[in-house]
Design brief:
single chain, globular, two-stranded antiparallel ribbon, four-stranded antiparallel sheet, Alpha-Beta Plaits, 3 helices, alpha+beta
């Protein structure tokens, strides 16, 4: 069993994730690639002291990048959209 801070890497602050937070009370996180939904649920509940209703995950493929004639790839990562129970909120620090 991993520590909760080892499962959740960081919150994602994008336009889409902010819209999901307002409309569906869902918060988006970057998580370690081998984490499952049960681990993600337990980690978010432990870190933020909230009740999680649902967890949706997806693997984001790393983008191809070029430097001159050399080609490489950014690392792939896993995204988790965590829907919170009604009445629960996570206050994240937003941009200035």
């Amino acid at each position: 069993m991993r520590e909760p801070r080892q499962v959740v890497v960081r919150p994602l602050m994008t336009e889409k994730s902010m819209r999901l937070k307002d409309e569906r009370n869902a918060v988006t996180f970057q998580v370690v690639p081998d984490a499952n939904k049960v681990e993600i649920r337990q980690a978010v509940e432990a870190i933020f002291n909230v009740k999680v209703r649902a967890v949706r995950t997806s693997t984001v493929e790393g983008k191809l990048k070029r430097m001159g004639r050399h080609q490489g790839r950014r690392p792939s990562w896993k995204k988790a959209v965590v829907t919170l129970a009604p009445g629960h909120k996570i206050e994240l620090v937003e941009g200035v």
